[in-house]
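Protocol step 4 of 6: structure prediction from sequence.
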Amino acid sequence: MFVSACGSPLTTEPNILITERTVAVTDLKEKAIRGGVARLLAQATFFAVRIGTLAVLARLLDPKDFGLVGMVTALTGVLTIFRDFGLSSATVQRTDVTNDQLSTLFWVNMAVGLLLTVALWIAAPIIVILYHEPRLFWVTIALSGSFFINAAGVQHSAILQRHMRFTALAAIQIISLVASTALGVTFAILGFGYWALVVMTFVLPVVSTVGFWLMAPWIPGRPRKNVGVRPMMRFGGTVTVMSVLVYAAYNLDKILLGRFWGAEALGIYGRSYQIISIPTDNLNSTFSEIAFATLSRLQHDPVRLKSYFLKGYSLIIALTVPMTIAIGLFPQDLITVILGAKWNDAAPILRLLAPTILIFAFINPLGCLLYSIGAVGRCLKVSLVLTPLVTIAYLIGLPYGPKGVAIAFSTVMTLWAGPHIAWGIHGTVVSFRDILATIGPPLLSGIVAGAAAFAVEVSWGPMLSPILRLFIGTTVLLSVYILMLLHVMGQKPLFMDLLQGLKGRANPKSD
């Protein structure tokens, strides 16, 4: 028998349930807070490594190298969704899961992973024809094996998340990222060009899957019939369809730009998008992982469900606002410092995409709330509306190149945010007034801080070097923002409660 860090037995006996019902509320809160802090620290490391790697590779490789690999990953990324088939979410969301169910889901994931690998072998010539680029054939073949490798770790990762072992998950992410980026940079230094990016992309899931197996040494049994996986498959299937729609909505821009504007245009747009997506992905993945596991345990306790969600939502908004403003105010300096002078064309695109960071912070957490209460059908309906809206926006902006696509994407997402929030919370324990009360203080604090940073930029910016201008501007921005948020807007008790939970003195009355 293996005992997880949460103290819940994970057994190989087929008829014993893996359950979370015995977790005390205060214990759950402390685990959520500690896991959240561990994940945020890990994501800070993750952010530093990714930005550092991007800065190094941007100087070693050309925009066309990034564009070539981006052409393939924009298409193959959707297959990554099918690799999981939503079954990890089904495992985490359920109150009780048996070993027979886990084993059956594991073999389903493996079968899907093998199918996707073979599908990519078949699709490689088609991708070459689509982009008129022969080099993409072997890039596609090389990346295909990652799907089968990834599938082997899906359920082990879900077990760690279910038992709220977020520190272990964070460690695995960091180790796999460092290992893959080290190899990628080495290959770039040795002159392998775009193959450095291929190696980096392939090694990441290999190291991650090994880590999942080592940290959750559960051995799957034989797949069995009639063990109650059909409801989980339906849940996972709905999640998968929705994820495909969302992926299409957020990646069709890259496919269109690669097809009609070429590898260099896609490389420039893609690096701007990557700078935007790194903080967005880091924060949202942290919130999603912890909030989904925590809220799923509270799905039958609406009062605490609402309290936990709003506190997490408030933290995400508070962290996202200054990042959005910094990228909007200092795009040229960021591009110069991170990517180098040959990427100057990416600066205006970066500024145009900046609003989407905050928009994603507004809307993405609502998916965790709906997932945790089993309302994945509504998420699917939202996706069915969002995808065509974004697609139309891309097509409108496409004739004007990367800038046109960036303007169209930011505009439609900004206009969509209000209806998305209203639809997402309808009929839940969270009201629109709760959302406004949560996002109000960070937004007002950000406006004041942004004005102060802009005044510094106008007054002394032209006399400073890019790196010094960026340092001073962000320092002023963060200092004024923190002062406004904690003391003027009265958000200090929220962060003190989080700190107490981290120290193991969570206050149940604050739930």
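Step 5 (inspection) to follow. The chain has one domain: 28-510.
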